């Protein structure tokens, strides 16, 4: 659902579920001249905080370190401007109801 949303917005998929010792990146996309590392989070409800709130500083740090690892392995992308986006999915994703929601935060956090 998140990938379909991003591709309809014009982003191109470069990779998915990139894993390394440092962490994992759900989606790696190209948005024009920018490289986009996307974290996708799902929460059925908000009882433990929403999907977007679940990407805390610790998770952000793991994503940043995984992105650095990716860039070391994929030098063809090393000179591209990069950003970190978060997609929050909530509600019923089965497609049977109308309660599914997608929240896309572009440039949600930065590598410090």
The residue ranges in which pLDDT falls below 50 over 5 or more consecutive positions are none
Give the class-level CATH name: Alpha Beta
Strand order of the largest sheet: 1-2-3-4-5
Number of domains: 1
Q: Compute the average pLDDT.
A: 89
Terminal CA distance reads 30 Å
Write a structural description.
The protein has a 5-stranded mixed beta sheet. It has one domain (2-51, 81-109): 3-Layer(aba) Sandwich (Trna Endonuclease, Chain: A, domain 1). A hairpin with a 2-residue loop joins strand 2 and strand 3 (34-43). It is built from 2 helices and 5 strands, in the order αβββαββ. The chain has helices at 2-8, 57-73; strands at residues 12-20, 23-31, 34-43, 81-90, 101-109. The chain is of the alpha+beta class and 112 residues long.
List the SSEs and their pairings.
Layout: H1 2-8, E1 12-20, E2 23-31, E3 34-43, H2 57-73, E4 81-90, E5 101-109
Parallel strand pairs: 3-4
Antiparallel strand pairs: 1-2, 2-3, 4-5
């Amino acid at each position: 659902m998140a990938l379909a949303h991003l591709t309809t917005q014009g982003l191109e998929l470069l990779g998915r579920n990139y894993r390394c010792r440092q962490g994992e990146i759900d989606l790696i996309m190209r948005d024009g001249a920018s490289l986009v590392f996307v974290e996708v989070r799902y929460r059925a409800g908000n009882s433990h905080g929403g999907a977007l709130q679940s990407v805390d500083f610790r998770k952000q740090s793991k994503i940043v370190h995984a992105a650095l690892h990716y860039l070391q392995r994929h030098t063809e992308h090393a000179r591209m401007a990069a950003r970190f986006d978060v997609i929050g999915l909530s509600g019923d994703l089965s497609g049977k109801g109308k309660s599914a929601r997608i929240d896309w935060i572009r440039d949600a956090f930065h590598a410090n």
